[in-house]
Amino acid sequence: MKSIAILTGGGPAPGMNTVVASVAKTFLRDGFRVIGLHSGYSALFTTQPRVQEIDFLLADEIFNKGGSILKMSRFKPTDEDFEKRFNLDFFRDNNVKLLVTVGGDDTASTANRVAKFLTEHQYPIANIHVPKTIDNDLPLPEGRPTFGYNSAKDQGRIIAAAVMEDARTSENWFVVSAMGRSAGHLAMGIAAACHYPMVVIPEFFNKTEITIEKIINMVVSCIVKRKLMGINYGAAMISEGVFHSLSDAEIKKSGIHFSYDEHGHPELGKVSKANIFSDLLERKLKELHIGVKSRPVEIGYSIRCHTPIAFDLTYCSQMGMGVYQLYNKGCTGCMVYVDHMGDVRALYLRDIQDPVTGKIPPRQVNVEANKIQSYINDLMDYITPADYEAARQYVPNPEEYDFKRILNWQ
To answer: Which of 47, 156, 245, 337 has the CB geometry, 3.0–4.6 Å to 190, for a possible disulfide?
Structure first.
């Protein structure tokens, strides 16, 4: 019996089960056996992989649920793993014709390595990747989102709106940190949906080095500006990705020592970024004798396994069915891509990878885009040259808290 194998890598995102179920349903109808692999890519490099048979009943039960029925892993195979431990027997014994991988940039990069390996060794197995990440940082064309992003943003919006309402009610300030390892899409999207008066994402620092002092000064700028406006409350949204852009010296200055995952990334999930920035902000405010207290809120793991919203239920179903369409066209070594018209296309990993490292580069927030600039100019609050004189009652050198001057945008 012909089979396909499906694995999920990285961290969860709303819509994982929708993709798995949609892939399964389309191939089951064509007489395929569908084998789910637990523990991500590690399942391909062991003689006894944990498997999950997926039939119609299971697929129909899970398609609209959060989380992932297939256990996930960030396992990253080494060259030695490929040479000595790749389990080709699993594919041969089960007559596997297609490997479907579901994940983000690291999973996509490893899928590219798997595709190359299979081609070089003339293994007759196709490989199609489904792009997933709540960070929205895979380089899909035409600004199309990665699946999971919109559901995570919507759930994050609920949390962030409640935080802002608390700020208004209690006349307090909050520092909110949102997930986003390599890009600020999620932080920017949540903040814009809630009219946060200050957002800090790594892409803002396109003309200057990113430092902790600059980040904190941007939040202070917002606090002072709103005081001048007669507003004694607010919230600042800071993307966790700023930590990835900080130098080692700057990270040490924060006083936090990170552990690192298999891909060499700081394990940001083990520390509260909101806590760090809230503490640093309070130190600065105390130094300036500004009587404001801040409270930290983390938006992270609570949104990854959220139930998918209608957009992702539809989008993930289209991609799942798209895998079947691409397979029947003979496509392999590619990502499935659904354009804004609902047409399915193949996006070949070799065309978007870094030619040296083979990794898939992250898609950054385009800070020059009109929607971003409009938000910065029309909804965010910060000190400008027109505020310098009035701001001196709070800070002796207001020009150092001028948002655009901090970023060297003037």
So the answer is: 156
